[in-house]
Amino acid sequence: MKSTMQFIFAVTFVILACGVVDAKPKIRPPKNCTIEPQDGPCRALHSRYFFNMTSRQCEHFYYGGCLGNRNRFMKKERCEKECKVSMVKRMQPVGTKRQPT
């Protein structure tokens, strides 16, 4: 009976450990960052940045000055701060310090 319980415990541990290692959290940017940018109907040429979901980068575009949507940032740094997220967080062993990235 004791060896059976140890076997079940070991198998359960292995299954759970494999599940944790293979788990890749899907972290999505905020909704405003996932919509296609719109330059709007006006004709101004304001230099702006938008978050491109395909490239996962903040990219330049020209905003017309009116309407459009919220996937529009005056500075690339602001776009990156709000939209750019790590898609997969690396796991590290317990008791180790995380290295700065």
TrEMBL record:
GO terms for cellular component: extracellular space. It is found in: Secreted. Its main location: secreted. The keyword Lipid biosynthesis does not apply. This is Putative salivary kunitz domain protein. SUPFAM superfamilies: BPTI-like. Residues 33-83 form the BPTI/Kunitz inhibitor domain. GO terms for molecular function: serine-type endopeptidase inhibitor activity. Residues 1-23 form the signal peptide. Keywords: Blood coagulation cascade inhibiting toxin, Disulfide bond, Hemostasis impairing toxin, Protease inhibitor, Secreted, Serine protease inhibitor, Signal, Toxin.
